[in-house]
Amino acid sequence: MIISILNMKGGVGKTTTTLNLGYALAQQGYKTLLIDNDPQGNLTTGIGIEEYEQTVTDTYLNGILPIHQLSEKLHVIPADITLSTVYNELSNKVDANFRLFKSLKAVNKDYDYILIDNRPDAGILASNSILARSIHVFS
User: Fold this and answer.
1) I need a surface site. Which of 23, 31, 52, 72 has the fewest CB within 10 A?
2) pLDDT at 122
3) CATH of the structural domain 2-138, one choice from 2.60.40.10, 3.40.50.300, 3.40.50.880, 3.40.50.720
4) pLDDT for residue 9
5) Three-state SS annotation for the chain
6) 29-45: buried (b, 16+ CB within 10 Å) or exposed (e) per residue?
7) Where are the domains of the chain?
8) How far is the C-alpha of 29 from the C-alpha of 27, rounded, in Å?
9) Sign of the CA dihedral 60, 61, 65, 69?
10) Is the dihedral of CA 90, 95, 96, 98 positive or negative?
11) Tens-of-pLDDT digits for all 139 residues of the chain?
12) Record's superkingdom (predicted)?
């Protein structure tokens, strides 16, 4: 199941909800993937990831899923400020809103839950997050 945590207002607890729900699901034995879909990278820093070579930006631009294993049941795809470049890079691409969907199809069945933390925005990143939720319909 893919859950996108979205709200158009900042500071309402999207990252906190994603982080705490992810930890709780993993503690209950569910294999959980957290995706930081916000250029501020607060989920990444909040979960304690300090070193990484690739981020969710690589997912959008190259189809790479840089999954970091935090525990047996909890994994994360980090983000940083480079994610803000995705808007410009994908603005004229036909499949711009389906990049995350396409990449997650490869691992969707490996996880009980995939939680996506989003920035307060209704652009390409939010569209990708919403459309990724439809994987179960097309798989």
Assistant:
1) 72
2) 83
3) 3.40.50.300
4) 80
5) CEEEECCCCCCCCHHHHHHHHHHHHHHCCCCEEEEEECCCCHHHHHCCCCCCCCCHHHHHHHCCCCCEECCCCEEEECCCHHHHHHHHHHCCCCCHHHHHHHHHCCCHHHCCEEEEEECCCCCHHHHHHHHHCCHHHHC
6) eeebbbbbbbbbbbbbe
7) 2-138
8) 5
9) negative
10) negative
11) 999 999 888 888 899 999 999 999 999 999 999 999 999 999 999 999 989 999 999 999 999 999 999 999 999 999 999 999 998 899 889 899 999 999 999 999 999 999 999 999 888 999 999 999 776 555 4
12) Bacteria
103: exposed, middle or buried (Cβ count in 10 Å: 0-12, 13-18, 19+) = buried
> Tokens representing 83?
């994610």
Amino acid at position 15, single letter = T
